[in-house]
Every structure is written in structure tokens, then in C-alpha cells.
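Field notebook, page 465. I keep forgetting to write these up properly, so this time I am using the form the group agreed on. The chain and the ligand, magnesium ion, are recorded exactly as supplied. Prediction of the bound pose follows.
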Amino acid sequence: MVIKDNIPLQSYKTWFEPIEPLKLDNNVLIIQVPSQFFYEWLEEHYVNLLKKTIKKEIGTAARLEYSIIVDNRGINDRPISIKYPTSNKNAVHNKPTSMPLSLNKNRTRDIPNPFIIPGLKKIKVESQLVESYSFDNFVEGDCNRLARSAGWAVAENPGKTAFNPLFIYSNVGLGKTHLAHAIGLQVKENFPEKTVLYVQTEQFIQQYIDSVRNNNRNDFVHFYQMIDVLMLDDIEFLAGKEKTQDTFFHIFNHLHQGNKQIVLTSDKPPVEIKGVEPRLLSRFKWGLAADLLVPDLDTRIAILRKKLYADGIEIPNDVVEYLAYSITTNIREMEGALISILAQSSLNKKLITIDLAKQMIDKFVKNSTREISIDYIQKVVCDYFNLPIEVINLKTRKREIVQARQLAMYFSKKHTKNSLATIGLHCGNKDHATVLHACRTVNNLMETDKQFRVYVDELDKKLKF
Ligand code: ADP
Ligand code: MG
């Protein structure tokens, strides 16, 4: 399909596969999209591609209409259509928000809570937000684009977007807590009068237990019911806590009905959470579930640089790169290694060098996250020969480049658990036989060429932890 060829596969999967064509009638193509957010995203990022494709496939008179699946609460079962003629340039600038559609429930559905005394709302709630976990400090990358932009949208319009709750999930150390705080901080900046609260689920559970013990469970519930924007972090801890779940269920319903924003984080998507009541789980799916993935190398480097910059610290680039190359799956560990390097260097007045970085990583980082990567090996080899790393993928027979590639293959075989095929794929898209040949060539040359042997030994030292 035309669209598939024009954008990365991942984007196609995320944004185009879920689209259902509903009908084509009189040059009007109606497509069904899963949510308001989805529609906004398509409009913002793919409007030109869509326009072009539709014109090409249907003709210049073609128009596109969206049908948005509203929600599964049965409050509004009728899909909403948004129209814009693709041939009308101005229409493209029509921001969705200015259109006569709203996914919010009626304001009149607000059920006043008889327990909240007017004026009590003015009570200042300590938001528990960490200043440094801001959007400014949250580096954007492919790994977090959806979650980040949904979080931003929520902060601009808490409780009034289709992402309620906003459910953020990922493995540990990938930014859920940071993003939850960022949303809270941003809401406070946009709407200082709103009551914002960040809580860890464990804290929430403890407060619940205390309230039962102290016989003031109602106060506990009412406190939470007056929050405008609630971030509950790591809700997987609710598993097996039936009473707390029950209470949270009521809080959730109350907030949601009052158009209050709820942000949840978890280590798994809603469908995989065990030990949580189905009625609560189904509510977690009402809004948008967005995951955070492992950041790619550039994003990891950008995160480290941002952190250093924020702290006003300078350390050599190669150390930053080394850290980003060696710690791939957990941002917290990467930052932890950076902090130990800084601490070591200032305590012992040591210069910050790659050697120090290696020692620290050895000491503090779990083996699992520390495996040396093919990327890193390529970088070290290319740096050693003063070649830009891109040459590895060049189709050239230039001797020095062929040699660098062979060395990268050889060390990848020696220092990683990757298969010959994988190594080949990453080193210039070669097959496994080429990698095997490279390893033999390096071994042979080491025996016959003294200078070459020196190269290999020096490189090996650089690569060793
Ligand atoms: P999680 O809650 O998913 O375990 P955290 O939010 O605690 O992860 O993130 C771990 C560390 O990584 C934090 O110090 C956070 O600031 C940092 N971090 C994660 N993602 C980013 C990002 N995109 N940009 C900058 N720092 C990030
Ligand atoms: Mg966390």
C-alpha cells in the first residue's frame, strides 16, 4: 500500500493498521479510528500523506471523514464524524478542538459530593511532585513519543481528553515515574488552582490500611475524591489487595464522573495485570494505554547530556558515549553509573576517563544490563582507526574499511553472544559466512603481521571490562 511504503513500519503499525475503512460513497471515504487522540495524531502528523494518497487513489474530488469510536461506557454510543474536505486547504488548519465535537461527558453529570463541604476544596494538598521530573527534563525519542505527547495533551486539558485514565506502562527504569510527575508539574503550571496529587500505590495502600485502623476510611475516600488530577504510580501493587481495590474503584468512578484526570502507571499493560478485579481492570482500558520502550542509543546519549547540563557538569564525550553504549535497558542504571563516576572522581580527585567509567560500571551495574554491544564494538574500532562509524555499512573494498569491518565482526563474535548471522546483519548486512571468514582472516593476520597483532591487542584492551 502507498502509505506503508512512505513511513517507518513501526509508525505504520501504530497509526494505520488500527484504521478501519467504513465506506466509500460519492468520493467520500469514511474511516474509523479508535480514539480522539488517534484522530488528532493522524491530523497532526500524517495529514499530507493521507491527502496525497486519497487524491491518488480516489481522485481530486475525494474527501476524508473520520468516525471516532467514542468510548465503551455506553454513554455515547454514536460515533462522531469529523468532516473536512481534503481539497480545501484551510480545512487542514481547522484544529480539532475548534470543531463542534467533544468527547467529554456532560458537565451536568457532575454528582455533587455531599461530604465535601464547600471551601474544603481550598485546602492545600501537598502534591508530592519532584521539580526535576519535568517535561523539560524528559528527553523525547521514538521510545516514548506516544506516551509523552498523550501526557502533554492531558496536562493541557486535564480530564477533558479521551485519555482518561492515561495508563503508562513499561519495564523498570524507563521513565514512568518521571512522566507522571511531569504531567502533574505541567498541570500546576497551566492551572495553578487545580488540586494535583502524585502518590505511589504502596503509599496509597498504606494510607488505606491506616484509615481502616483509625476508623476514618470515609475521610480517606473523601480526600481522594476532591483531587482534580491524580497520579497513581505502580498500580501493579494493587494486586491481591481486594479491599484497597474496592475503595480505589469508588474513588476512580467518582473522579472519572467528575471529569477529573487520572494517570496510572504500571509495569504491564492492563490486559496482563493479574490479581486485580475485572471491573477495575476494564476501567483502566477506558482511556489510552501507552508504553515506554527502551530508548535507542541517541536518546540515551541525549538523556545523559541533558542530565549533565542540568547539573552544570562537564565530562568527556567518550565517557558519555561509553555509558550510553554499555547500559542499554535501564535509564536509572545508566544514570546511577554516571553518578558513581562523578562521585568517585570528586572523592578521589581522579580524572573522569573511560577507565574510571569501566571500573564503575563493573562495580555497580548488573551484568544483564551491561553486555557489550555490537554497536559499541564498531564505535571503538572505528574510533581507533579514525574512521566515521558509518563506513562499516559502506559497500566498498577499500582495505582499511574492510579491515575495520572484519575486526568489528571478530570482536563481536568474541565479546557478545550474538550469532554469526546477527553480527553479519549489523556489520554491513553480510551473511554468516562472511563473518566466519572475517574471524579466520583476523586470526591469520595476527600470526603473520606484527603490526596487526598490536592493533588487535590494543583494541582488545579497550573493549575489556
Ligand atoms: P520507572 O518509573 O519507569 O521505573 P523512572 O521514571 O524512575 O522510571 O526513570 C528512571 C530514571 O530515568 C529517572 O531518573 C528519570 O529521570 C530518567 N529518565 C527516564 N526517561 C527519561 C527521559 N526520556 N528523559 C530524561 N530522563 C529520563
Ligand atoms: Mg517508577
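OBSERVATIONS:
- The domain at 374-464 is CATH 1.10.1750.10 (Chromosomal Replication Initiator Protein Dnaa; Chain: A;).
- The chain has a mean pLDDT of 83.
FOLLOW-UP: compare against the apo run.
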